[in-house]
Amino acid sequence: MQQGDWPGLTAISELPARGRAVCTGIIDAVTILPASMVPAYTAIVTDRETRRSSADGINHRLRLVWTGRRRVPGIVAGTRLRVEGMVSLRDGLPTMYNPRYEIIGTQET
């Protein structure tokens, strides 16, 4: 299955304020909380090829939060993935809690 073959794929900049969505992007950053805090693993995903802040004023970032987890296998900066889940706004940033995800491999040349 190719990246464009997923039905209902939404660009991160077009995510609804609330509701179910499917999108793809590259993990730009992850946050690992200290052991003294409640476990949660957070990743920021962008659908821009360049990870720098957007000059067009449109948000191209999505926050993913896995609650109760200190790590999520394969979810590291630079990983390309497809995510599916319920979107809500948290601190002005679209956020998915405990999303389903699929890591998208790259073709070797």
Topology:
Blueprint: E1 19-32, E2 40-46, E3 61-67, E4 80-90, E5 93-97, E6 100-103
Parallel strand pairs: 3-5
Antiparallel strand pairs: 1-2, 1-4, 2-3, 4-5, 4-6
Strand residue content = 35-45%
CATH class: Mainly Beta
User: What is the first-to-last residue Cα distance?
Assistant: 19 Å
From the spread of the alpha carbons, the general shape counts as globular
Overview of this structure, please?
The protein is mainly β and 109 residues long. It has a single domain (10-103), classed as Beta Barrel (OB fold (Dihydrolipoamide Acetyltransferase, E2P)). The chain is 0% helix and 44% strand. The protein is built from no helices and six strands. Strands 1-2-3-5-4 form a five-stranded mixed barrel. Strand 4 and strand 5 form a beta hairpin. It is globular, with a radius of gyration of 14 Å.
Short description:
The chain has 109 residues and is mostly beta strands. The protein has no helices and 6 strands. The protein has strands at residues 19-32, 40-46, 61-67, 80-90, 93-97, 100-103.
Features:
109 residues; mainly beta; OB fold (Dihydrolipoamide Acetyltransferase, E2P); five-stranded mixed beta barrel; 6 strands
